[in-house]
Design goal:
Order of helices and strands: EEEEEHEEE
Strand content: over 45%
Structural class: mainly beta
Number of strands: 8
Distance between the termini: 45 Å
Shape: elongated
Strand order of the largest sheet: 1-4-5-8-7-6-2-3
Number of helices: 1
Radius of gyration: 19 Å
Helix content: under 10%
Largest sheet: 8 strands, antiparallel
Length: 131
């Protein structure tokens, strides 16, 4: 039987907004005035067998991410920004009780200026646990 006539990768994106002024911790330390947003994506593989016109969809790899928005720099995250031979894996717990494990800093974005400045640190993680 002819397998896999067509392959396509899709991504499902789930974004969960956070509750303002709740605790966000990085490696057990509270990040003051921080909020968070969760991003969980899962690759989907679409294929057709033989002469079938209906696609079959299989789950692919899941990827976990969390972004922390804060008005001031977070020291433990800033230390990971310069180029280094090895990166520290971080743990993040957010206000809704989710815990993200083995995270690396993926990006930093700064918006605004002076007292209205906002820093957004985004991390990619290997694991997530739900309360």
């Amino acid at each position: 039987m002819v397998r896999a006539l067509a392959f396509a990768a899709l991504a499902a994106l789930f974004a969960f907004p956070s509750v303002a002024n709740a605790d966000v911790t990085v490696n057990g330390a509270v990040v003051p005035k921080a909020t968070s947003a969760v991003e969980i994506t899962q690759a989907l593989i679409e294929f057709r067998e033989g002469g079938e016109t209906s696609p079959q969809v299989l789950p692919g790899a899941k990827r976990y991410g969390v972004c922390i928005v804060t008005p001031s720099p977070v020291g433990v995250l800033d230390t990971e920004l310069p180029h280094a031979d090895s990166a520290t894996r971080l743990s993040v717990q957010i206000e809704d009780g989710r815990s993200f494990g083995r995270c690396l800093v993926a990006s930093l974005k700064t918006e605004g200026s002076a007292s209205k400045r906002r820093l957004t640190y985004c991390l990619r993680c290997e694991d997530v646990t739900v309360p």
